[in-house]
Amino acid sequence: MAANLEDELIDKVRHLPPSKQQEALRLLDTLAVGAIRESSGAGVDRKPIWEIVDEINARLPADTWENVPTDGSINLDHYLYGAPKQQP
User: Fold this and answer.
1) Using CA atoms, how far apart are residues 80 and 50, in angstroms rounded to an integer?
2) What is the reported pTM?
3) How many CB atoms lie under 10 A from the CB of residue 71?
4) Which of 6, 24, 51, 67 is deepest in the core (most CB within 10 A)?
């Protein structure tokens, strides 16, 4: 199957004008470098989601969480649509 995919790629590239062939080559080079980095683990600087949340939270004003309702799960319709509040 890989040979068929390679043949299909080559056939499509052959039908492109020279400027688009250069563009395709640059794209393939970028993809190849990225694949090498991913397979070796180099260049992968992804942070865990909790670190991203902590960074965002650190930039918020100190009183931000004081205004967040604590009954949001029970009274979601109230806060979104103005329905009467439910008692917790």
Assistant:
1) 27
2) 0.39
3) 13
4) 24
Location of structure tokens 């052959």: 14
Burial of 38 (0-12, 13-18, 19+ CB in 10 A): exposed
Contact 40, 32 (CB under 8 A): no
- What is the chain's mean pLDDT, rounded? 85
How many Å apart are CA 26 and CA 74, to the nearest integer? 54
37 within 8 A of 43, measured Cβ to Cβ:
yes
Q: Residue 51 — pLDDT band, cuts 50, 70, 90?
A: very high
Calculate the CA dihedral of residues 78, 82, 85, 88 and round it to 10 degrees: 0
3-state secondary structure of 33: helix
The closest of 38, 87, 23 to 13, measured between CA atoms, is 23
Q: What stretches of the chain adopt beta strand conformation (E)?
A: none
